[in-house]
Each structure stands twice: as C-alpha cells, then as structure tokens.
Amino acid sequence: MRRIETRDLPDLIRRPIVSEKATILLEGNQYVFEVVPQATKPQIKAAIEIIFDVKVTSVNTMNLPRKKRRVGKYLGYKSQYKKTIVTLAQGSSIALFPEV
User: Fold this and answer.
1) Which InterPro entries is this protein grouped with (predicted)?
2) Are 17 and 34 in contact (CB under 8 A)?
3) C-alpha closest to that of 33 among 42, 47, 90
4) For labelling, which of 13, 38, 48, 97 has a CA lying 20 to 30 Å from the CA of 22?
C-alpha cells in the first residue's frame, strides 16, 4: 500500500452522511462520513483532525455490501462504499449545518 501524504488526507473524506441514525449519533458527539475504500483508521483520524481542527478519540469503519438495483429487465449493482463513525473528544464539535 502506498503512503498517503499529509496534503492528500482531505481527499480521503468524501462527504458527511446525514440520515436518521447519523442525526441520533450527533447527540453522542459521533459523526458519520463516507470515505474512500482504501482509507485506514489512522489516515481517517488524521484527515478529520486536519480538516475540522478537532480531537478524535475513536474511529469505527464498515465496508457496506453492494446493493442490487433493477432498471427494467437489466440487473445491476450500486457502487460499494466505506462508512466511518468518528467519535470526538468532549468539547469538540463539527458544524455540519452552519448557521445561515
């Protein structure tokens, strides 16, 4: 596996995931992100700390299975992605919904 440079770390995080479960996890200071499948836990931790300037206590990752999708008579699959749940230290937070 190739070494990831510090300048490439922000590219590991694709987007925050906003769902009902992710919103419930916000109360426990946990945030859910979609990351590139090759990203490791230390790389994800470093990327979140650099991008949002927060202290990360733990990183949990999961590789979600591909889901079947049918369009007419054709059967295909949605692309597979990796999801991570990041727990922040007390007092740290990320503004996913900035004040307007």
Assistant:
1) Nucleotide-bd_a/b_plait_sf (IPR012677), Ribosomal_uL23-like (IPR013025), Ribosomal_uL23/eL15/eS24_sf (IPR012678)
2) yes
3) 47
4) 38
According to CATH, what is the number of the domain 6-88? Answer: 3.30.70.330
Q: Which residues contact 99 (CB under 8 A, 6 or more apart)?
A: none
Query: What does the DSSP assignment read for 45-67?
Result: HHHHHHHH---EEEEEEEEPPP-
Mind listing the pLDDT tens digit of every residue in the chain (100 residues)?
A: 566 677 778 889 999 999 999 999 999 999 999 999 999 999 999 999 999 999 999 999 999 999 999 999 999 998 888 999 999 999 888 887 776 6
pTM assigned to the model:
0.83
Domain range summary for the chain, segments of one domain joined by +: 6-88
